[in-house]
Design brief:
The structure is a single chain. A six-stranded mixed sheet has the order 1-2-10-7-8-9, sandwiched between helices. A four-stranded parallel sheet has the order 5-4-3-6, with helices on both faces. It is globular. The chain is built from 13 helices and ten strands. It is an alpha/beta fold. The protein starts with 13 loop residues before the first helix and ends with a helix. Helix content is 43%, strand content 14%. Helix 4 packs parallel to helix 5 and helix 7 crosses helix 8.
Length: 332
């Protein structure tokens, strides 16, 4: 079931991302760009990885969640917020709500990794579980928000959420500029498309010639198929990949409007390739990356793009992986 699109709203801009950076200063972490001679040799390029695995709550989602919640007017905060998420947005919203003194209800799939469910609850949020194959998470969340007078915080299809995620792109450009470099190619994982939309807005404003690619699991490549058809495509399944963070079944209305203009091409990687990327990050980079967070690295390591001799940026979007699955992947 596709998430119901929001009413027509103004698209976020690079100026919105700059404003978000001011709100997030001293709250979100400025995550590093990781490089490795072993990775450069494996890909044949100069590769930098934005380690959002080290962000607050273990993923980039805190950026957008905090930016969105901090822009809610004080007179609308009494009812709290409601969000729906497989785990990373859940934790980001829960943490942001805790910081801002707001109540949070999170609608999560019953098959979400246990650590994500437990950490969301530990951050003070009320967790409501649903069946991702049979129930509509958006409808559940909207019903709760209406009943409680709460503000709905979408995981990606919201201008302030997108602007918050875009602060990662702003940092990428600034940190590469400090090395007298600029990105030639940027690869970002896509589920609903909020992260790549925000990063593309931020980077294209400063480096117009940068080439973007979305990365998705095989069989869940709705963004890439949407680029080819020119309209928002829907995945046939709602589950069936180890990339639990990337199973949104259609691009957002707002995010696709941005991404079709600034990105326009997508690649995919198999679960086996993703597993090898998770293991590579652990062994060579000493980083814990969840499968969905490693999708861009997986595509690069598998040679899905010809990036020889270029400056390439990939985003490690999250590190909230189930311990048992992580052990299986790094031991394979």
């Amino acid at each position: 079931m596709a998430d119901t699109p929001q009413p027509q709203v103004a698209l976020p801009t690079a100026a919105d991302i700059d404003a978000a950076a001011s709100r997030l200063a001293g709250v979100a972490l400025r995550t590093p760009l990781i490089s490795s001679p072993v990775l450069d040799a494996a890909v044949g390029a100069r590769v930098f990885l934005k380690a959002e695995t080290l962000q607050r709550t273990g993923s980039f989602k805190f950026r957008g969640a905090y930016n969105k919640l901090s822009t809610i007017p004080p007179d609308q905060r009494a009812g709290g917020v409601v969000a729906y998420s497989s785990g990373n947005h859940a934790q980001g919203v829960a943490a942001a709500a805790q910081i801002l003194g707001m109540r949070a209800v999170i609608v999560m799939p019953s098959d979400a990794p246990r650590p994500k469910r437990e950490r969301t609850a530990a951050l003070g949020a009320e967790v409501v579980l649903y069946d991702r194959d049979r129930e509509d998470r958006t409808a559940i969340a909207r019903a709760i928000a209406e009943k409680r007078g709460a503000v709905l915080v979408p995981p990606f299809d919201d201008p302030m959420v997108i602007a918050g995620q875009g602060t990662a792109g702003r940092e990428i450009v600034e940190d590469l500029a400090a090395l007298a470099l600029a990105p030639d190619v940027v690869v970002v994982g896509a589920s609903g498309g909020g992260l790549i939309a925000g990063i593309a807005l931020a980077i294209k404003a400063r480096v117009p010639g940068a080439k973007f690619y979305s990365a998705e699991p095989e069989g869940f490549d709705d963004t890439a198929r949407s680029f080819r058809s020119g309209k928002r495509e829907v995945n046939a399944r709602m589950s069936g990949t180890i990339c639990d963070a990337l199973m949104t079944n259609t691009p957002g209305a707002i995010t696709f409007e941005i991404n079709r203009r600034l990105v326009g091409e997508g690649i995919s990687a198999s679960d086996a390739e993703v597993g090898r990327a998770v293991a590579f990050a652990f062994r060579e980079l000493k980083l814990v990356v969840e499968p969905g967070g490693a999708i861009g690295l997986a595509a690069l390591l598998a040679g899905k793009l010809d990036v020889k001799g270029k400056v390439v940026v990939g985003v490690l979007s999250g590190g909230n992986v189930d311990a048992e699955l992580f052990h299986q992947l790094i031991a394979a």
